[in-house]
Amino acid sequence: EEGKSSCEKCNENCLNCISTTGECTQCKESYYPDGKECKFCPRGEYSDSNDNGYCKKCPIGQYNNRVQQTSCTECPKTTYQTEEGQESCIECSPLCVSKDCDKQTGKCLKCIAVYYKDLNDDCQKCGKGYYSSEGSSECLQCPEGTISSNEGSSKCTQCTGLTYSNFERSN
After folding, report:
1. Which of 26, 98, 121, 126 is most deeply buried (CB count within 10 A of its CB)?
2. Which residues pair with 90 in a beta bridge?
3. Are 129 and 150 in contact (CB under 8 A)?
4. Around Cβ 132, how many Cβ atoms within 10 Å?
5. What is the pLDDT of residues 8-32, one digit of tens each?
6. Residue 112 neighbours by CB under 8 Å, 6+ apart
7. Could you give the CA distance from residue 24 to residue 35 in angstroms, rounded to a whole number?
8. Residue 99 DSSP code
9. Nearest 5°: phi and psi at 123?
10. 18: number of CA atoms within 13 Å, CB side?
């Protein structure tokens, strides 16, 4: 059996490899080690110089729709992402004013008119006899002499003719 007279070169994207096997232990940015190979980080993941060549999932509120990236992108206005390692963001609810929502939770920053933010920060429709203006965090009861006969009213209607509206009072 003949001895080795030359060394083989480790993978071109490998920064450190084991001298006896050629197995890569550290890769360049945006690659990860897989045996003797250095492979691209997949969509939804990234690798930077602090990661020792290992891919990390994009954090909540960010995405990455390309391979071999060194960072992730924050979800654009009107979108959000509640999970790590995603390739895209989700559209904010149309119940949000200007479709603007929290980038990490998807909760509306403000609700459109006729909705209010409940204790869970979800937009809920106001009930009959109540109204809500845009961005309100509560439904307001219609004042005496006015009504709202439908759910989700943005204003109260004045009683007219020989009609009236007042609050039931207990003595």
Report:
1. 126
2. 80
3. no
4. 26
5. 899 998 889 998 999 998 888 888 8
6. 94, 95, 96, 97, 123, 134
7. 6
8. G
9. -80, 125
10. 11
